[in-house]
Design goal:
Radius of gyration: 16 Å
Number of helices: 7
Distance between the termini: 51 Å
Helix content: over 70%
Order of helices and strands: HHHHHHH
Strand content: under 5%
Number of strands: 0
Structural class: mainly alpha
Length: 145
């Protein structure tokens, strides 16, 4: 259990690091493509059952299942890093991010009642709300110029 948990935490932290490095190096300008990629990657998680990977060889199973599972974290990290970079109230945004993580953690218990795929639908709904309510990065940049 500890080895699996350690691997999962390491993978999450690596994806967050990669997302931040991507934003620093590539300096993407629009959030919308990353929201679309996030929704697509979450949809793959919903529609491709984990049992699909059981018939693969060890390395292919590990790489493909990890890619399907952890790629949404990369896109969510890119969205957060881009938004945070342009933020004028970083303390408020960071606090909101922590509150969202706590809410997500509480919603995780829904997976015990309804299953993992329903939790993915909850995540899609939350990210959909974030997309609908997001301020334009350009509008944030113009406000300070």
């Amino acid at each position: 259990t500890w080895v699996v948990n350690s691997a999962v935490f390491a993978a999450i932290l690596i994806m967050i690091l990669l997302a931040n490095l991507f934003v620093l190096k590539m300096r993407p300008g629009k959030l919308s493509p990353f929201f679309i990629l996030l929704f697509l990657s979450l949809a793959v998680n919903v529609f491709v059952p984990m049992e699909t990977f059981l018939g693969m060889s060890g390395a292919a199973r590990t790489v493909s299942s990890c890619a399907v599972t952890f790629v949404p974290i990369f896109f969510a990290g890119v969205i957060f890093a881009m938004s945070f970079r342009e933020s004028k109230e970083q303390n408020l945004d960071f606090g909101s991010n922590i509150a969202g993580a706590m809410l997500g953690g509480l919603c995780e218990y829904l997976s015990l009642l309804f299953g993992f795929n329903y939790l993915l639908l909850v995540a899609i709904a939350f990210y959909g709300a974030a997309f609908a309510l997001k301020p334009s990065l350009k509008a944030q940049s113009v406000a300070t110029d």
